[in-house]
Amino acid sequence: MYIKGNTFIVTGGGSGLGLSTAQELLKLEANVIDLKNTEESFYKGREKNFLFIQADITSEKEITKAIQQVIEKFGKNIRGVINCGGIGGVGKTVGSNGMPLDLDLFKFVVNVNLIGTFNVCRLVAAQMVKQKPLEEGERGVIINVSSIAYQDGQMGQVSYSASKGGIASMTLPMTRDLSKFGIRVVTVAPGPFETPMISHLNERSKQKILNQTEFPARPGKSDGEFNKLVIHLIENTYMNGEIIRIDGGIRLGKL
Amino acid sequence: MYIKGNTFIVTGGGSGLGLSTAQELLKLEANVIDLKNTEESFYKGREKNFLFIQADITSEKEITKAIQQVIEKFGKNIRGVINCGGIGGVGKTVGSNGMPLDLDLFKFVVNVNLIGTFNVCRLVAAQMVKQKPLEEGERGVIINVSSIAYQDGQMGQVSYSASKGGIASMTLPMTRDLSKFGIRVVTVAPGPFETPMISHLNERSKQKILNQTEFPARPGKSDGEFNKLVIHLIENTYMNGEIIRIDGGIRLGKL
Amino acid sequence: MYIKGNTFIVTGGGSGLGLSTAQELLKLEANVIDLKNTEESFYKGREKNFLFIQADITSEKEITKAIQQVIEKFGKNIRGVINCGGIGGVGKTVGSNGMPLDLDLFKFVVNVNLIGTFNVCRLVAAQMVKQKPLEEGERGVIINVSSIAYQDGQMGQVSYSASKGGIASMTLPMTRDLSKFGIRVVTVAPGPFETPMISHLNERSKQKILNQTEFPARPGKSDGEFNKLVIHLIENTYMNGEIIRIDGGIRLGKL
Amino acid sequence: MYIKGNTFIVTGGGSGLGLSTAQELLKLEANVIDLKNTEESFYKGREKNFLFIQADITSEKEITKAIQQVIEKFGKNIRGVINCGGIGGVGKTVGSNGMPLDLDLFKFVVNVNLIGTFNVCRLVAAQMVKQKPLEEGERGVIINVSSIAYQDGQMGQVSYSASKGGIASMTLPMTRDLSKFGIRVVTVAPGPFETPMISHLNERSKQKILNQTEFPARPGKSDGEFNKLVIHLIENTYMNGEIIRIDGGIRLGKL
Ligand SMILES: NC(=O)c1ccc[n+]([C@@H]2O[C@H](COP(=O)([O-])OP(=O)(O)OC[C@H]3O[C@@H](n4cnc5c(N)ncnc54)[C@H](O)[C@@H]3O)[C@@H](O)[C@H]2O)c1
Ligand SMILES: NC(=O)c1ccc[n+]([C@@H]2O[C@H](COP(=O)([O-])OP(=O)(O)OC[C@H]3O[C@@H](n4cnc5c(N)ncnc54)[C@H](O)[C@@H]3O)[C@@H](O)[C@H]2O)c1
Ligand SMILES: NC(=O)c1ccc[n+]([C@@H]2O[C@H](COP(=O)([O-])OP(=O)(O)OC[C@H]3O[C@@H](n4cnc5c(N)ncnc54)[C@H](O)[C@@H]3O)[C@@H](O)[C@H]2O)c1
Ligand SMILES: NC(=O)c1ccc[n+]([C@@H]2O[C@H](COP(=O)([O-])OP(=O)(O)OC[C@H]3O[C@@H](n4cnc5c(N)ncnc54)[C@H](O)[C@@H]3O)[C@@H](O)[C@H]2O)c1
User: Fold this and answer.
1) CA-CA distance, B174 to B164, in Å (whole number)?
2) Cross-sheet strand order for the sheet of D50-54
3) Among the bound ligands, the one closest to the CA of D83
4) Looking at the complex, does the CB of residue C242 fall below 8 Å from at least one CB of chain B?
5) Which family, according to the similarity comment (chains A, B, C, D) (predicted)?
6) Fewer CB atoms inside 10 A, N or C side of chain B?
């Protein structure tokens, strides 16, 4: 799919992986929507091709309304959504004090990462279905963001891994649901990237993870690595139904 | 781990895979608890080693209470939980009518299968932690039930696959959380088994699936195949952190 | 499949994983053949149900002849083969001295582990095809031994991982080739087990690996863990086409 | 890694996936070497940035000599190798006539695809090690070509799947071997692409495969899809140790 002139929604587009992705799409002359739950916007002066919408990905109402706003501004031309909106969440199944993990924490992480991602997918896809197909009948592309934690989940990551495993496993059935409409679905599973999310980790945990890197021996770059992969996945029509790790060769054993 | 004389909770133990598992555990002279959300019980006359508790796996309160009841009857000796409680749930991301999947369906399936399973895991594990270790320091074993749909999700299975992918991906971090307490975690991912769940499928869907079987060309047997695998996984101390398909060689392509 | 009275070939049955498997099969009153390339035999006094054959798994001639010997002694009743015959092989793609790995080392490891395993499979399967089917049309079962190195290959394991990845990936097509004859194929991927193979490792490497174990914090037991899994896989007719890790929860990151 | 001005070897660069890759690299102003075992060359008039070398990837001598020729023409500047050289190979473990697969066929496929690929990797990597590092210490990138048959191997693909599984599984240990030299390793696992290799399939087999495609419902394009992915993988420094399917969402069930 060509990027120029088309409209792409980036959830969590105001920071980290989403921000770099949104910026790269803007460079390539797409219309870009940053859709997130907090207020400030990083795109001052971009008003022509850019729209910031405050909306919670878990909310049917807010996302439905957001899609309408997008169409009002850019027309019936939503061709992609990149689901970078998400949260971390640390806690062991049973803590050192013998207490079980707070169920609400688990629910919260699954709700935002898995249910929120699915909510955006289904609503954006239903809009894409109504739009005219492009070349070869392609109508749109969905890029979801899982994590290497779907395969290499660490101690304390049970909630996060569960949510990211859900995202990974829905890739194929969603592909199968949406193929007849010409909508592709690809999931990216990043290793450690230097973003606000990872900078919340304490130094020791971060160092332990970085000790496991191969080449290059550093976290990934949102700008130049993550976002370039996303651009490639949007452009390459034969990438469909895949789950792709981008992790500099890291495999997290016991830390 | 030895089975005889130990106490095992089977969620969904009143039908299908759970029923066969509970029966096999009874044969091996374990204490068995069937924990499910409906009323009737299949274990008349088994009162000595058997307990039926009506409880919803998604409820903190009901599962906490259930664990207390188990301990009152059988002592502080809960050594295993087999999470067979779960539900199906069919619906495409975007239906033929162009409508997005009902978000509540997705939430419901994820809530029962993923959050419910995790809820039982964390509460049972916290109880196991308090109990005296057995040989080699082993305190217990958790067997979760995913599905081949975590890898081979079909059209219409996006909710189910998401929930089962969450279960699969939490296997490793849960193993890592619980190892120091001597608790193992293994996930079984069954292919088609002849149970109430699969008998809800219409004939055409069922036939399409069975056309994909290799040898033997039939659904799996709850009694003799699924339950024997579970018994093996309880007994074999080196099985930990694994995800195991049992599917007669089926890989579900596009049906 | 029932074990008692049936005939099973165990390659590499004279040591390590193969030895324990052969011994367990003998306990269960099977006829057992230890097929290996070295001379001494551990089964003195077992002559009734046991046969030792010196044969190289990579040799068409020697394995063909071995199968004939088996049939002469036990009749047309070969129901299983467990391919434990294999070798290690350490060396980096490019060594610290800048030299490329000796191609002959790579070839040797691939030849024994992958080609040797396949050679035995195809010849034994061709014999099974000629035999009368058992219950449900089952004619036999092939258990191949890969390694967790097919997924977690370490520095220096490129040859070994290549050979074990070949074994893992041929599981499914071999299952599909042999299903119509009622022959199942399952691959076991062991983590570290205390056998002659692993005792060749230096203490430091061994310790690094064992530091990565979860519960139990020790190598696996050939007798009681590996061999019991094999017995289960022989008996459980719905296990077909699977690749099963048995590793105590280990995932080998960067050591 | 930047492409312009650097030197890349493409094995099998004279047809199919390799040809498109070589052509794209030439467009991006790289020096390109087509290294294959047959004679004709498709690059007439490209003499400045292009070199054709007839060499068998399985031969230590021929590849060693080829690397010397490359250096003589383009200098010590080999920055990448894309291993497209490979062959098909069809045959069941046991044929319909009851005969086992010819061992030489299995050996031949494994020898070219797996051992040949490794041979080129080790020799090219040893050359890269001697060269000056680029930005961030990067010295080179190896792109190997597996196939979706490493996971979805069909009836009749046991040899091919074994060879491609070997390639997939050596990705990680080779990454770990070469990281300290700043050399990355990535494996691409293509689904069906319209190349000479696939055009050898009979119409019925081809149709069966294409019936399994999702969107787009056609084979992949060497030019525009496969080669663009390769370019991306060369350029994206954080892609290391990955195995990437490019298959339009196909998952091959039982055909
Ligand atoms: N950074 C890493 O190392 C890493 C690794 C693997 C996966 N990921 C994943 O990548 C994604 C992006 O992460 P990041 O590192 O850029 O983190 P980030 O915290 O910078 O970005 C997450 C964004 O999601 C938004 N968000 C959170 N909840 C939301 C909600 N309910 N509704 C709308 N927006 C919401 C936040 O406002 C924020 O902009 C996440 O899904 C994360 O799990 C990150
Ligand atoms: N049958 C198959 O082919 C198949 C295949 C793959 C996976 N599975 C999985 O195996 C598990 C068992 O399935 P089954 O085929 O035996 O189906 P089943 O419907 O016979 O059993 C499911 C059981 O779960 C119980 N349950 C459902 N919701 C519950 C709740 N909220 N609280 C407590 N109990 C609850 C039900 O009462 C029932 O006893 C399920 O998780 C299912 O997804 C089944
Ligand atoms: N021990 C472990 O930790 C471990 C881990 C993963 C996988 N494995 C695999 O398990 C299998 C058994 O290993 P083990 O640990 O018991 O080692 P082992 O060295 O004790 O056994 C290997 C056996 O294979 C036989 N053998 C080797 N080459 C042969 C040939 N050409 N023809 C016939 N027989 C031959 C040897 O005689 C020996 O009996 C091997 O394939 C090994 O790669 C072992
Ligand atoms: N085309 C597909 O659908 C497809 C799918 C999956 C994987 N692949 C893989 O992609 C790679 C390229 O395949 P293709 O479709 O372009 O096929 P192709 O037959 O057009 O190209 C293969 C090339 O390899 C060369 N080659 C073969 N043996 C060689 C040897 N010993 N030494 C040097 N060169 C040798 C041939 O000369 C030819 O140029 C192969 O490894 C193939 O297995 C192809």
Assistant:
1) 15
2) D50-54, D31-36, D7-11, D78-83, D140-145, D183-190, D243-246
3) 4
4) yes
5) Belongs to the short-chain dehydrogenases/reductases (SDR) family.
6) C
Question: Per-residue pLDDT for B148 more than 90?
Answer: yes
Neighboring chains of D (3 or more beta-carbon pairs < 8 A): A, B, C
D160 is catalytic: yes
**Which residue segments constitute the domains of chain D, with CATH numbers given?**
7-246 (3.40.50.720)
How far, CA to CA in Å, does D51 sit from each of B75, C247, D145? 78, 48, 22
Which partners does chain B have (≥3 C-beta pairs < 8 Å)? A, C, D
Which residues on B lie below 8 Å from D255 (Cβ)?
A: 253
**CA separation for the pair B85, B10 (Å, rounded):** 8
Is A87 exposed, middle or buried, given 0-12, 13-18 or 19+ CB atoms closer than 10 A?
middle
Strand partners, D29: none
Structure tokens at B31: 């204490």
Residues contacting ligand 3 via CB (< 6 Å)? C 11-12, 14-18, 36-38, 56-58, 84-87, 112, 116, 145, 147, 190, 192-193, 195-198
Read off the DSSP letter of residue C220: B
Residue corresponding to tokens 């959050």: B115
| Residue B43 banded pLDDT, cuts 50, 70, 90 | confident
**pLDDT tens per residue, chain A (255 residues)?**
999 999 999 999 999 999 999 999 999 999 999 999 887 777 777 778 999 999 999 999 999 999 999 999 999 999 999 999 999 999 999 999 999 999 999 999 999 999 999 999 999 999 999 999 999 999 999 999 999 999 999 999 999 999 999 999 999 999 999 999 999 999 999 999 999 887 777 888 888 998 999 999 999 999 999 999 999 999 999 999 999 999 999 999 998
Q: Which of residues 126-165 of A touch B (CB under 8 A)?
A: 126, 129-130, 149-158, 160-165
Q: How many CA atoms lie within 13 A of A115 on its CB side?
A: 23
Each residue of C88-112: b (16+ CB within 10 Å) or e?
Answer: bbbbbbbbeeeebbebeebbbbbbb
Residue A73 alpha carbon to ligand 3 centre in Å: 67
Provide the residue type at A156 as one letter. Answer: G
Find out whether D254 and B253 touch, Cβ atoms under 8 Å: yes
Q: Give strand ranges (E) for chain A.
A: 7-11, 31-36, 50-54, 78-83, 140-145, 183-190, 243-246
Q: How many residue contacts between A and C have a Cβ separation below 8 Å?
A: 32
Please indicate whether residue D85, judged by its CB atom, sits closer than 6 Å to ligand 4.
yes
In order of B86, B212, B255, C55, the CA distances from B205 in angstroms are 20, 11, 9, 49
- HSE value, Cβ hemisphere, 13 Å, CA-based, for B122: 28
Alpha-carbon gap: D125 to the closest alpha carbon of chain C (Å): 7
Contact A100 B123 (CB under 8 A): yes
